[in-house]
Amino acid sequence: MKPSYDRAFRPLQNGMICAASFLVPSGQRSEWRHEWNAELWHVRHSLCECGGLPWPAQRQITAFCLGSLRDAMCLRRESRRAQQPEPRISGAAEQCILRLCTLLLVCVVLASLLPGVQTVRDPARFQVNPGVIFIQTSPSADQFSPSISPTLFLDWKNTRQRYFDEFAFYRTVSEPASLSARRARWSVTHASPNLFSLLGLQLPFDLGGSADDGATPAVILSYDSWRREFASDPGVAGRLIRIGDRAVRIAGVMPYGMWRLPGTPDAWLLEPESRLADASPGARGYLVAHLSPLGQSWMNGPSVPITVRGAEDPDVEFYAVSFADRLRGPGGIFTFAFLLALLALPAVTSVTMGESNYSSHRPSRKRTLLRWAFLLAKFVLVAAIGYFASLDLAWWSSSNYSPLAEFAQLVWAFAMCLFGFRWALADQRQRCPVCLRCVTHPAQVGLASRTFLGWNGTEMMCMGGHTLLHVPSLPTSWFSGQRWLYLDSSWEFLFADSCLY
Amino acid sequence: MPQEARLSHTAAMILQAISAGYVYGFSIMEMTGLPSGTVYPAMRRLERDDLIRSQWEKQSIADAEQRPPRKYYRLTADGKATLEASRKRYPLLERLISAQEANSL
User: Fold this and answer.
1) Rounded-to-integer distance, Cα B45 and Cα A237, Å
2) What is the 3-state secondary structure (H, E, C) of A285-309?
3) Which residues pair with B56 in a beta bridge?
4) 20 to 30 A Cα–Cα from A349, which one of A205, A319, A452, A475?
5) DSSP reduced 3-state for A447
């Protein structure tokens, strides 16, 4: 009987181990099979010593071999688990900072690609000489209007002045322009030759001789008209075009964003002052003046009235108006929006962190500092994102100075700071003060109808087993805000399942 | 300081058996009465977590005794510490498997 049993069961038992070995990952298969075969030999030997290999012994050996299948499957599962990426811990503080940094990076990259944003962030490009002002009949520094006649400009320029040491004039009219075979209607600014030197704008090209010398008048193209009419041709300088009834020479292209004075012309035509005076009697333009040291001492505030002795019309009042607002960079606008958002923050959210003194278990001083540092980092990143994103949105398509774009930047920056800070505080209130992870698994506790007997609201837990967060549904005099319940180490076993076998 | 792993009773029994001198799979099965499908997977996990370490017997020793070499298991330092903690958790562990039994075999 013994040999027949053995002949029947031995191939079956060996075959079971061999079949199970194919479930084992190939790298471990050889050693695994070696171990199980060795163990099988010892099992057989052990049972043989106990008196041959009858039916019960063969059953035990077969049961032993069946265990190899379970072992192989366990190894296979372990191997697959090891190949899978680590499960992500959702809501970790590092993830939050990383996401904000990524968003900031996108905004910064976008800002570096948009020419409008580059211009507005480079104040050196549009800064003018100190002491340059407008003279107009309106005292408003927000609304500039062409109100000065060319004859008045010439009259003042040729008269000795105490408060001003130089004047320049420009006026913008719509004129036909002939560009080779094409005709267009342009907005052309006729300016006195000293306009750009008075302003102190450094044009990157030579304007050439003045028209007084009999030379062809020089015209400066705006960046937009250069792109629109000349397809951004780099060799446009020196070309002759006709504006109105005159042939003019293109001196160059105004750098992007340099012109911040009122008006958005397609071209600037520098003309002799005598020709400016030939304009129709009703023509009005902008008078730009440079204050003398005495004038600068009198220029207090954005707008100062000017007394003109011997004026033709005594009812007309003149004002010296500063346009410094047009020359401020985006930093000032953002600072204002930032402070405004900080002031408005308590109106849109609670600024408390939901701390309470109801628990004796408190996080360590280091943890508390880390928590505040995390909140500060979020605020800084949100502010930086607000700065760059508001610039991107406001100056997305603006090629020239635009009060509308500045206003848009103010609104965007305010909205982003306000709602960003609101989010930062709300997010902080949902994070465990110990591990800074978001609390999860909200559970409704209590009944609203029993508010006066006990609290009802939502309870959330920290997956690290550090805290429970209680948020009341109806704020009451004894439970008005959310509360943290710090759990001691006796709770840990509930949250440490991965440690158990 | 690494956190001590909390063991199930089965895993603690296997550790105790190895500590008591039952150093290969079949002897552990015999001592604990656990089936092979429980003992071997548990030993793999214990080895994965550095609580035990395995070593193949020298071929020369096995050849001298005319049998295949076996894989022996022994406790690591972490394994000893974990077993110590498990003994507090399962006070009857030492009574179930004592070192004298292994030595007497």
Assistant:
1) 79
2) EEEEEEECHHHHHHCCCCEEEECCC
3) B71
4) A452
5) coil
Query: Which long-range contacts link A111-119 to residues 24+ away (Cβ below 8 Å)?
Result: A111/A388, A111/A391, A111/A392, A114/A392, A114/A395, A114/A396, A115/A256, A115/A257, A115/A399, A116/A256, A116/A257, A116/A395, A116/A396, A116/A397, A116/A398, A116/A399, A116/A405, A117/A391, A117/A392, A117/A395, A119/A256, A119/A257, A119/A258, A119/A395
Best of A39, A69, A77, A494 to substitute, by most chain B Cβ atoms within 10 angstroms, is: A39
Interstrand relation of A246-253 and A164-179 (parallel, antiparallel or unpaired): unpaired
Would you say A129 and A323 are in contact if contact means Cβ atoms under 8 Å apart? no
CB contact under 8 A, A42 and B67: yes
Q: Which residues 59-98 of B have a C-beta within 8 angstroms of A?
A: 67-71
B contacts of A67 (beta carbons < 8 Å): 35-40
Q: How far is B98 from chain A (nearest CA, A)?
A: 22
The secondary structure of A125-160, three-state, reads: HCCCCCCEEEEECCCCCCCCCCCECHHHHHHHHCCC
Residue A326 is which amino acid?
R
Residues from chain B contacting residue A64 (CB–CB below 8 Å): 26, 29, 35-36
Subunit contact A67:B36, Cβ cutoff 8 A: yes
Closest by Cβ to B8, choosing from A64, A74, A500: A500
Beta-strand pair A246-253/A467-472: unpaired
Q: Are A431 and A438 in contact (CB under 8 A)?
A: yes
Cβ–Cβ contact A492 with B under 8 A = no
Per-residue pLDDT of chain A (501 residues; tens, 9 = 90+): 455 667 778 888 888 999 999 988 888 888 899 999 999 888 888 876 655 557 778 888 888 998 999 999 988 888 887 776 655 555 688 889 999 999 999 999 999 888 888 877 777 777 777 888 888 887 776 677 788 888 888 888 888 788 888 888 998 888 888 877 778 888 899 888 888 888 888 787 877 655 555 667 888 998 888 888 888 888 888 888 888 888 888 888 888 878 878 888 889 988 887 787 776 777 888 888 888 888 877 777 777 787 776 656 666 778 888 777 677 778 888 999 999 999 999 998 887 776 655 555 677 788 889 999 999 999 999 999 999 999 999 888 776 677 788 889 999 999 999 999 999 999 998 888 888 888 888 888 877 777 667 778 888 888 877 888 888 887 777 777 888 888 876 676 666 443 334
DSSP structure class, residue B93: H
Contacts (Cβ under 8 Å, ≥6 apart) of B49: B5, B78
- Taking CB atoms and an 8 Å cut-off, how many pairs form between chains A and B? 74
Distance CA A422, CA A437 (A): 18
Rg for chain B (alpha carbons), in Å?
14
What's the ipTM?
A: 0.89
**Residues A139, A140, A145, A146, Cα dihedral to 10°:** 30
Q: Is the whole-model pTM more than 0.80?
A: no
